[in-house]
Amino acid sequence: MRRYVMIGSGVASIAASEAIRRVDPTGEILMIGDEVHGYYSRPGLAYYLTGELAEQHLFPFGDPDYRKLNIHRMQARVTRIYPEQHSLRLENGATLLYDRLLIAVGAEAQMVNLPGMKLDGVVKLDNLDDARCIIRQARRGRTAVVVGGGITALEIVEGLISRRVKTHYFLRGDRYWSNVLDETESRIVEQRLVEDCVKLHFHTELEEILGSNGHVVGVRTKDGRKIPCDMVAIAIGIRPRKELAEASGIQVERGILVSETMQSSAPDVFSAGDIAQVYDPVSGKSVLDSLWGPAREQGTAAGMNMAGITSVYRKIIPFNVTRLATLTTTIIGTVGRGEDEDVVGIVRGDSESWRQLPDAIAAQADFDVNRLRVLVGKDTLLGAIVMGDQTLSRPLQRLITEQADITPIRQQLVQPRAPLVDVLADFWSQWQVGHALRTRE
Ligand SMILES: Cc1cc2nc3c(=O)[nH]c(=O)nc-3n(C[C@H](O)[C@H](O)[C@H](O)COP(=O)(O)OP(=O)(O)OC[C@H]3O[C@@H](n4cnc5c(N)ncnc54)[C@H](O)[C@@H]3O)c2cc1C
User: Fold this and answer.
1) Which residue is closest in CA terms to ligand 1's atom 8?
2) Domain boundaries in the chain?
3) pLDDT digit string, tens, across residues 308-327
């Protein structure tokens, strides 16, 4: 009987376990995770913060699900892997053997090194305990400073304003999430934040967090201003937890390098999720994602391979449907480029693939609060951002993922002030008919 060991109890490990069970009903599955709350929806934490989702709804898996899959769980921290011996060591000194191992330890928030970082009231948003802490602090405190870019910083801002906390949002640069959004999109988000009484501070950096009796009482900025506050939230990006693999002699770059079958450089050791650096056929590079869907798909592919069924993970065009200042936003394919001063590496709900933009022409349309931007390549669409009205979100996901030939509408799309929405909607209807016919053939 094979022993499969998963390090980490997140979505990648769950998906791998489900895949193994489909193939191997008797093998032993042991899931080792250091997270006290086990498996839950991390993207759901944003809605938990705003009070839209109750805590119990964050948990998609209950004890009966683990029993059904016959997964044994252990709350522990793995400190070392010995690939030669097919063994690993736990923090308490115990040693365990494995036949196949999955490293799915995820990523953690990057923190800054500033005076005052250890004060009570300095928060981040990695896990459920962090979210609980923000809610607790929001009850106690009345003013907060949020630092960083991307989705998580905004999720914290939105959580705080929904709890009526006066919020200052610090941005080092001159606009929000500049390496993914274009200027108009950034301004739409910023305008909505201002309407919600968020005080935006551009070109502003933290110099020091000020404390009294161990608790945050304010911040000092690099340009010498003092802002009183009770809480400081840091969301400047994430870093894959690669120390375990590094210390165990497994090949890492920005994450654990894996093959198309999710295998690491060590025999019988696989990796998936936020920690895995995966080959992207579009760019020919190995890239990181921090997205729930790809973590699940990678976990499934890893599980199949662990159980002996060859399964190649084909990295699809990454997309995320998220909310930016309450505006539903879908991000698909390659949409941005360049640096963002507010972000180190990638943020949660982000993909490095989004920023590998080859030659493309941006076509955009604005109507009311809605905005659509598509990146038009030589004969295909390379990416899109759909803000607000989501009618074209799914069609664009399909057209981009399936690399639909847009030659018939390319000229229309790149015309100044093109009726983008109508052109794409018509094309989508025709493409669907053609696609159905082609599939039938
Ligand atoms: C606030 C937030 C918002 C997000 N928003 C979005 C979104 O809008 N869209 C989207 O697609 N994705 C979003 N994500 C990202 C998504 O949740 C992740 O991509 C996904 O959870 C990755 O799953 P994983 O299994 O790789 O890792 P994780 O879910 O991070 O699980 C890894 C687990 O391993 C444990 N671990 C680490 N080291 C060890 C060790 N040495 N021993 C034992 N256990 C260990 C960790 O404690 C953790 O519980 C968000 C994440 C967060 C936190």
Assistant:
1) 349
2) 3-107+244-250+289-305, 111-236, 324-440
3) 999 999 888 888 899 999 89
